[in-house]
Amino acid sequence: MNIGIIGARGCVGSALIAQLIATTEHRVIASYRREEETGLVHERVQWKRINLYDDLATEEFLEGVDVLVYLVHSLAAKDFEAMDHAFASRTGKFAKKMGVKKIIYLGGIIPAKEGLSKHLRSRQDTGKALASAGVPVAEVRASILLGLCSVSYQMVYWLSRRLPILIMPKWSKTKCSPIALEDAVAMIAALINRDEVGHEIFEIGSEVMGYDELLMRSGSIVRGKKNRLLHMRLFPISLAAMAVQRITGVPRRIASALMGSLKNDSMATHNRFTEIVGRDPQLIDAVLKRLAKDMQRK
Questions:
Q1: Mean pLDDT of 216-234
Q2: Is a pLDDT exceeding 70 seen at residue 76?
Q3: Is 50:58 a contact under the CB 8 Å cutoff?
Q4: If you compute the radius of gyration of the chain from its CA atoms, what whole number of angstroms results?
Q5: What is the C-alpha separation between 125 and 94, in angstroms, rounded?
Q6: What is the pLDDT averaged over residues 143-162?
Q7: Residue 195 has pLDDT above 80, yes or no
Q8: Topology, domain 2-145+178-206+267-281
Q9: Which residues share a beta bridge with 67?
Q10: What distance in Å separates the CA atoms of residue 143 and residue 154, rounded to the nearest whole number?
Q11: Domain ranges (residues) in the chain
């Protein structure tokens, strides 16, 4: 089977390619942009340049693809909501035209209540846009991905390591369901051979905790003791994002979008990981310990 991956040079895409080559016989058609280099060299990996602004380039990339994995998110762009919608709509349209059997999309967990952040609103809209042309969509919804290449993990690690006292907004107590990058990749891989009809949601996650608790758990591991937390009612995200960029290296625009999403709970209320993958997700403390050791080796 030919597995197309749009967003293949990103954190999840790179890990997914390695997983598919190591554990399956699938062929991979992997995307890269003009400003990017290609990734893993293997006889079953074909790298094709893509331009999601262009109809013909999108159509040409999808030629021969059986199952498409869509991993695009334009957080670094100022108008990322409009850009994500346009890219997803174009991809769904040409996936239908080129006979793609299914799209697997990695999005974010969407809480039931109103008032979504721009980031989560865009994640939800992207899933709908991909499905709008009629190609079946398996939408994997995840909270915070924990992996060395994950921007979310980089924020957690460096904030908990460098700041003994963490000044957090009141809403940092909102609940999340972090999950190891490897587990998210395992979920995507497990869905490739699953029959899909319509637009189906698959929430995944490990333990449920507050974002502030996740930072404290990380601090206990990387510093040997928990960070002190000070919760503030007034917390201007724009200023906080500038501080996060200086402390963690995560670009201000991305930090701002991610921090804005902390106002929404992102816990898995119908966790389907074990059902699909056939095992439980890794426990968070074990994941944080392993990643902390890997960070020290870098």
A1: 88
A2: no
A3: yes
A4: 19
A5: 18
A6: 93
A7: yes
A8: Rossmann fold (3.40.50)
A9: 3, 102
A10: 15
A11: 2-145+178-206+267-281
pLDDT given for residue 39 in this prediction: 86
Residues 6+ apart with CB under 8 A from 89: 129, 130, 132
Is the C-alpha dihedral spanning 232, 237, 242, 248 positive or negative? Answer: positive
User: What residues pair up with 194 in beta bridges, in sequence order?
Assistant: none
3-state SS record for the chain? CEEEEECCCCHHHHHHHHHHHHHCCCEEEEEECCCCCCCCCCCCEEEEECCCCCHHHHHHHHCCCCEEEECCCCCCCCCHHHHHHHHHHHHHHHHHHCCCCEEEEEEECCCCCCCCCHHHHHHHHHHHHHHCCCCCEEEEEECCEECCCCHHHHHHHHHHHHCCEEEEEHHHHCEECCEEHHHHHHHHHHHCCCCCCCEEEEECCCCCEEHHHHHHHHHHHHCCCCCEEEEECCCCHHHHHHHHHHHHCCCHHHHHHHHHHCCCCECCCCECHHHHHCCCCCCHHHHHHHHHHHHHHC
d(CA 183, CA 270): 16
| pLDDT at residue 49 in the model | 92
| 99 φ/ψ sector (left φ>0, alpha ψ -120 to 50, else beta) | left
pTM surpassing 0.85?
A: yes
Q: Would you say the C-alpha torsion 226, 230, 236, 240 has a positive or negative sign?
A: negative
Partners of residue 203 on adjacent β-strands: 141, 271
Residues 276-295, buried b or exposed e (16+ Cβ, 10 A)? bbeeebbebeebbbbbbeee
Task: For residues 51 and 54, give the distance between their C-alpha atoms in angstroms, rounded to a whole number.
Answer: 6
Residue 279 has pLDDT above 70, yes or no: yes
Q: How far apart are CA 95 and CA 70, in angstroms?
A: 11
